[in-house]
Amino acid sequence: MAYIVPIHRPSSIRHALKLNFLAADEECLVVAKANRLEFYTQKPDGLALQHSQALYGRVTMLQKLRPALAPTDHLFVGTDRFMYFTLSWNREKKQTQTEKTFESVADNTARESQTGERCQVDPSGRFMTLEVYEGIVTVIPLVQRGKKRKQESEIALMGDPVPQRVPEMFVRSSAFLRTRSANEKPQLALLYEDTHSRVRLKLRSLGFNSDNTAELDDGELYAGELDIGASHLIPVEAPIYGALVVGETSVGYYDVDTKKLVTVPLEEATIFVAWASVDKQRFVFADDYGRLFLFVLDLDDKDKVTSWSLHEIGQTSRASTLVYLDAGCIFVGSHQGNSQVVKITGEKSLEVIQTFQNIAPILDFTIMDMGNRSGEGQTNEYSSGQARLVTGSGAYQDGSLRSVRSGVGLEEYGILGEMDSISNLFSLKSDPSSPYADTILVSLVDESRVFRFDNQGEVEETDQLAGLDLAESTLYAANISQGRILQITNSRVQITDIEGGMTISEWTPPGGHSITAASANDTHILLSLGRGTVVALGIEGLSLIKEKTYSAKRQISCIALPPKSSTVCFLGFWENSNVSVCSIDSLDVINSTEVSTDSVPQSLLLTQIFPDQPPTLFVALADGNVVTFSFNATTNILSGKKSIILGTRQPTLRALPRGDGLFSVFATCENPSLIYGSEGRLVYSAVTAEKATTVAPFDTEAYPGSVVMATSEDLRLAHVDPERSTHVQTLPVHETVRRIAYSPALKAFGLGTIRRVLKAGEELLISHFKLVDEIQFRELDTYRLNSDELIECVMRCSLPDGPDSNDRSERFVIGTAYLDDDNAMAHRGRVIVLEVTEDRKLKVVTELAVKGGCRCLAMCDGNIVAALIKTVVIYNLEYRSESTPELVKVATFRCSTAPIDVVVNGSLITIADLMKSLVILQYSKGEAGLPDKLAEVARHYQTTWATAVAEVDENTYLESDAEGNLVVLTRDLNSFSEDDRKRLVMSSEMQLGEMVNRIRRIDVQTASDPIVIPRAFLATVRTLPTLSCLTKRF
Amino acid sequence: MQPQHVFHRSIGLEHPDVLKRATASRLIYALQPSPVTFTQPPPGEPHDEPQRAHISGVNAIAIDRFEGRYLLSGGADSSIAIWDLEAPSSSSSVGASIYTPMIAAGKTAEQHKLGITQVCFYSFDSLAFLSSSYDHTVKIYSSETLVPTMTWNLGSVVYNIDISPIAQHLLVACGTQGPNVRLIDLKTGAATHALPGHSGAVLSTAWSPTREHVLASGATDGSVRFWDIRMARGELGMLDLEDPVGVLGKISHHRHTGRAQAHRGPVNGIVWTEDGRHLVTCGHDQRIRVWDTDTAANTLANFGPMVRNSGLAPIIPCLPPSQYLLLERDLLFYPNQHEILMYEMFEGKLLKRLKRPEQKRFSEQTVGKGQLNMKDRVTALAWRHHDTELYAAHSDGSIVAWKPRTQEDVDLDEEEEEEREAKQGSKKRKRGLLEDIYQDLTKKKITFGGS
């Protein structure tokens, strides 16, 4: 079994729309990010997120609808599951609600539209059209009020969809033309390519026929020539009417009255990708190179178009959608780069007001560390959320390197002092009237120390404070009412006055017992004296309420009091690992529950995690588990047991205030975690504080909301984020970062990049291999490939240094393919071995021209495995002469179609084929002069358009395909039949809905019997999820 | 494979289908005969030479559409065999694999007295299949045992059977020598339902892939009729080769109902396109016609003068899956005597003539015994589902696999050949050198000239 956990939400934007969704008088922007809808309103400083909604399925279209009786606009959403529905906003619940689930229009036999899915609403509001399949326009009548009185009560009026077959295939753009009167039939204009690759424009009228079903008429074809690159059809509003036909080399205006098209060539050819209308005369266009243009129609006094102008305003990300917001602001939604809000500030200038980070599309990534900076990708299973990945994101001019780290961020302010073996920390106020704490009491093994902060943040150690006993280790310290401080040490409990340092009251355990554990709240103190004795004291005068000694069999393991005054306390017992709710007055057990079968409770903490819910009791067990219960204060019952494993040692728990009377819990063990409530659930998230042994909240004036944190060597002041987030740092490269290889030894990245340049109207792709410093992200050297040569793969490896030496040194190997399909060329790609010199420059060691492009590279048994088109070849780097090595072919294997990804484990080479799923090869060195052999050992006999593969476990492979499916394939080596051993069998599958570009295996150290082992990271075109494999079968 | 398609797919610029269609259609255009042999050794005597798949000719083949793994073949001598396409019994490095049947039933088992006319797998799994035969019977078999679980005797030659790929009604449409389309209900075992209308033997039937009650049939009277099996009043309409317009929206009740002809001669092949929007028919007038099923109009695609069609046995064209082809560039493979013609379906343009190499044919001498069809003829075609392979049944008893062999494959083969030669060459040179030395030592040198 396998399951998947996302690290980063989808951030690529393909669709956006402006409508009055949230309120009738306020426009809002709805943005579709893969399977998530986000609603923004415009604020002076940019867009503010108002609501976010996840959907089942990826959004493929958005449209605005205004049913006659509705106060606000409804949102029509289409998904890639062919499900369509309308949403409206419920003001009371502050949620979206489905107005009409519009059944799927899926047609298994029809072909999906090649040119994108479109949805248009006729300007008179009578019809909506969907173009989902080639050759089919689905018409949905939006029955108007008055036409059919019976349906008036229905809020979202939508008729049944009527599929209409049209002979027009390859529709590039469609639009409803504006009509002069409401009685005119709406006209749907289709810009399409016919079977002879000519671009045509056809206008079809849409109306009800006699039996009240909607029907498209045969329409009329525009007879003239159209720009071969015509791509967009833009309806022009009244009173101008007509439509613009925007192409690569010209812009034309189609006049509906004269049925003529006037075309004016562009000064410079470009590819327009998106448009938005500013007003009836002005439009903004965006092109493929990220340029934004303003297009203005000039009119005569009869509102007839006389001429038009187009000029560039400035540079943005490459837009997939444009929305004109207001006051010169334009939302640029982008799939390839960051989305932006830009403001037109002048004739030819614009300013970026707001940027929405976008990590998509991720072409490749590398795992830098798994949260413990060990560098080898080794870590234990508890910190999967803490890995740092570096991704190659974006395309062309928006290409960038992004460093992604997820988890709760921890920012260290500084080290307060070096001291070892800190056992506990307490923050105190020396001024009881101040809202801020200013003193830290550090409890060491045999003493306590006190540090005071002034309001500037300067810190100094004081010898004494308010009569605190510093000669002993402190078990508990806190400010209590009336300007007093409560301190509990091993030998006594004392309450002192802050002002004078006078001891107000004191209690020492009878009979020379020492106090082993303590807990206190506003009214009570609970002490454990060892040997099963528990003492309850009242705060006032430290009066003894009850002393109770439990039998030798019932040893106390931990104690706790509720944070606020209460009649109960919590005791944990060794025996049966029980946790009991006891009355504070009698210390008699009211209720008892077993928390674990094989461990013992070691620490207890009751705190308020969720608003308006009973508090939560956390029980830390000795084996690293944390068990939580919901505690009902009226019935004293513990319920809702949940358990999670945080480490292998007993975690210590500390509540950190989050504000509004809520707390989160900081658990310190091998990998510290922050436990907090989110959307009604407990969230356990790793914190970037590897060495923390104990923490305490420390809300000082100079550093509000911070914590003090003890490590095994020192004491630090830090800030902890309230919850988990993904931290992304960006380094713009302005080229597509297609491949990343990271060399820890060289402390450098090897990047395979692709840049697009326009030369005399022709698009050229230029590939580079760049060496980039790890820390400064500085480019050290660049190796340029030939023109028309595309970088396909980059690998770091170690190869022999010289003819005789056994030394191996770090090398980068790159594989390339030539773009053109000219068969006259003998060689279709290259394999190049590069070394990094001492002054960190690239130098070619050797190169080899190959007959097919080199798709991927891997290392197997010290040899280079190169997956060429159609073959997998094993090359050995041989030094035939003293200085220049050569790549010598030692073995080959013929693939089915074309290899797309290669993974090597030992001598097993797994190849994902473009079309034919997986094949596993065994490489064996030739013995006694025989040549090396490459033989097929197993295969997955299915047609799968694979995109990536990883070996996630022994004989277990994770494969992704182009349709967004993930499959886990296993090979049963224990089977008796040879056929079964040769056959990969699918053990689980899921539809991710996103195409995966790269799967990287991670190796984590695990305890003996973990339930879940994280196995691989996956990067998709739109987002970055992580995978965990469940190894046990239930 | 175009590197830029892969790159554009990975950045989300192009839909993954673009690469898929481009790659797969390139493979389909590169179909070549592959060195794969289907052989069924006759029981008893061991043979060195590979034998044919069915000794007296293969009449019908079908491949299961679930896994694309099992090939079912029926012979002219009523033998039946199932082959596992994923498990060749032996294979060599150059892709020359030899298949032997997983399970086979020879004519000795008295499965059919006369030859098989058609085989097809059951609609919803590959564990059962149907066969029709010249001996008037239709049988349903269990694929695992090859034991017929039910036999229907229809009283006349059954030329063609078809079972709907989508319908739950489990009706098998049978084209028989009589003028009725006969329906066999697999649920009840009844074979009483008949659709009267044709005036000659029904040679072909085909269920619509999208509308479960719609059936098309073609007969020796040259008509192609549509039926809705729920309706009592007979056919829905018929195709008229002289009607290039059709009736918009509905299948025509044509002016001259009952006389409209789809072909000027017997119609012995009908196949629907996957989306049910078009129907392809073949007739003895040496024509292939493509019809728009919405309007029943003849699309007037002209397939040229190469088309040959004779005999009453079904000649059914094979349509590769359209998801593997560029839009509106659907292909059609037509079994034309001894070769296969590859056409563009809507234009009727002949793209390629697929002929198998000479040496592949079994010569007359090796055939010798057993009755043999006089001429080598392609009798049936089958597309391997989920793949880009075409299988052809031949009347000389062989099954030929057509697999893609692209320019890259050719280049690689050449390269490998060169390498092999280079290796052998170096050996030869060595041997030659040794030979020379040996000759020098043993033979006396003959010199001319005076000395």
Automatic annotation (TrEMBL), chain A:
- According to its UniProt record, what is one Pfam family this protein matches? CPSF_A
Every copy of the RSE1/DDB1/CPSF1 first beta-propeller domain together lies at: 12-357
This protein's superkingdom?
Eukaryota
Question: What are the RSE1/DDB1/CPSF1 C-terminal domain coordinates in residue numbering?
Answer: 767-1021
SUPFAM superfamilies for this protein: Quinoprotein alcohol dehydrogenase-like
Does the keyword Nucleus feature in the UniProt annotation?
Answer: yes
Any one Gene Ontology MF annotation carried by this entry is:
nucleic acid binding
Question: Which UniProt key words apply to this protein?
Answer: Nucleus
Q: Boundaries of each RSE1/DDB1/CPSF1 second beta-propeller domain copy?
A: 416-718
Task: Name its cellular compartments.
Answer: Nucleus
Q: Which GO terms describe its cellular component?
A: nucleus
Q: Which family does it belong to?
A: Belongs to the DDB1 family.
Report the protein name in the record: DNA damage-binding protein 1
TrEMBL record, chain B:
In this chain, composition skew of type Acidic residues spans: 409-419
| Pfam annotation, one family | WD40
Q: Which GO terms describe its biological process?
A: proteasome-mediated ubiquitin-dependent protein catabolic process; protein polyubiquitination; transcription-coupled nucleotide-excision repair
Q: Which GO terms describe its cellular component?
A: Cul4A-RING E3 ubiquitin ligase complex; nucleotide-excision repair complex
Keyword DNA damage assigned = yes
Q: Would the keyword DNA repair be found if you checked this record's keyword annotation?
A: yes
Please give the superkingdom of this protein's source.
Answer: Eukaryota
Q: Residues annotated as region Disordered?
A: 405-430
Q: Please provide the record's keywords in A-Z order.
A: DNA damage, DNA repair, Repeat, WD repeat
Give me the WD repeat coordinates as residue ranges: 51-93, 195-230, 260-301
Output this protein's name. WD40 repeat-like protein
